[in-house]
Specification:
With 310 residues, this protein is an alpha+beta fold. The chain contains 7 helices and 17 strands. The chain folds into 2 domains: 126 residues, D-amino Acid Aminotransferase, Chain A, domain 1, CATH 3.30.470; 155 residues, D-amino Acid Aminotransferase, subunit A, domain 2 (D-amino Acid Aminotransferase, Chain A, domain 2), CATH 3.20.10.10. Helix 2 packs across helix 3 and helix 5 crosses helix 7. Bound molecules: 4'-deoxy-4'-aminopyridoxal-5'-phosphate. The site of 4'-deoxy-4'-aminopyridoxal-5'-phosphate (PMP) has 14 residues, from helix 5.
């Protein structure tokens, strides 16, 4: 289906509305201060099954609940209700292609004081067609960013807060303007945190390594899925521990993972080739397993996806 997604429907507050009418006032607290949280969910079209599958929907709404708790946002719906709203939204839009879903919970009251308590919140969700967000085949050229990740006591990365994405935009935009595909962000004490919108894995001598949740990362749902696939299907040793910047340079394989990014190999960092400069074997195997599971093509991982159409 090729039509302008802005002509579709959204959900805002209590109702489905035309997306073009789902607007906010300039006095909105969240617009002024970034006081909201959000999710990014993917739904994959399976042409053979004539079905759209929403990936890890429950996990995303559980994380939205966690973000809301940290930011003192009131979520008027349960995880089950949020799932129902999302499925109904997708049916109303009738997509038969890969879709990105964007739930948002934000301080919607016209309010200029710096408080989180007693400011009304609104839940909204919209969706749009989306193919690959970053290249997933050739390999990305990355740099470590001079922008660092804020720590948990300044701007908690664990909460997927709208305002926190200024940090991601600064890092990602500078990387692109300098000729790289994407940035890798370090913690204030110099460890590898994650990408601008993705978690990071490296492979060294057959061991799969990723940063711990205490290194200012978003607790990624794809990261968890990769850990599950690696343990179940590849039986490779796994280490969840802090990663030094120069470990990136000497890694055999490196990849980003995230809902938008999916699994995207990285083939150079700071002008140093990773391994032989091509996407690595374990990365490609994880990609193969992941893409089959998310499109509803592996019955073993049927619980990862929810069908949209009856
Ligand atoms: N880190 C950041 C900063 C992100 O924005 C995302 C995308 N949500 C991720 C990691 C990956 O998380 P997930 O796998 O849950 O999409």
């Amino acid at each position: 289906m090729t039509r302008d997604w802005l002509q579709g429907e959204a959900f805002m507050g209590e109702d489905f509305v035309p997306l073009a009418q789902a607007q906010v006032n300039i006095a909105t607290h969240a617009l002024n201060y970034g006081t909201g949280c959000f999710e990014g969910i993917r739904a994959y079209w399976n042409a053979e099954h004539e079905q759209l599958y929403v990936l890890k929907m429950r996990e995303h709404y559980q994380r939205l609940q966690a973000s809301a708790r940290i930011l003192k946002l009131q979520l008027a719906y349960t995880v089950d209700e949020l799932g129902e709203i999302t499925l109904e939204l997708l049916r109303r839009n009738g997509y038969r292609q890969d879709v990105y879903i964007r739930p948002l919970l934000f301080k919607s009251a016209p309010e200029i004081s710096l408080k989180l308590t007693g400011v009304a919140d609104t839940f909204a969700v919209f969706c749009m067609p989306l193919g690959d967000y970053l290249d997933t085949s050739a390999g990305l050229k990355c740099c470590t960013s001079s922008w660092v990740r804020l720590n948990d006591n300044a701007l908690p990365a664990r909460a997927k807060a709208t305002g926190a994405y200024i940090n991601a935009c600064l890092a990602s935009d500078d990387a692109r303007q300098s000729g790289f595909d994407e940035a890798i962000v370090l913690t204030a004490d110099g460890h590898v945190s994650e990408g601008a919108s993705a978690n990071l894995f490296l492979v060294r001598e057959g061991t799969l390594i990723t940063s711990p949740v205490s290194d200012s990362i978003l607790e990624g749902i794809t990261r968890q899925a990769v850990l599950e696939l690696a343990a179940e299907e590849l039986q490779v040793p796994i280490e969840v521990r802090s990663i030094d910047r120069t470990e990136l340079y000497v890694a055999d394989e490196l990849f980003f993972c995230g809902t938008g990014v999916q699994i995207a190999p990285i083939t150079s960092v700071d002008h140093r080739l990773i391994g032989d400069g091509k996407p690595g074997k374990i990365t490609r195997e994880l990609q193969r397993l992941y893409f089959a599971a998310v499109r509803g093509n592996n019955p073993k991982y049927a619980s990862w996806v929810v069908p949209v159409y009856q």
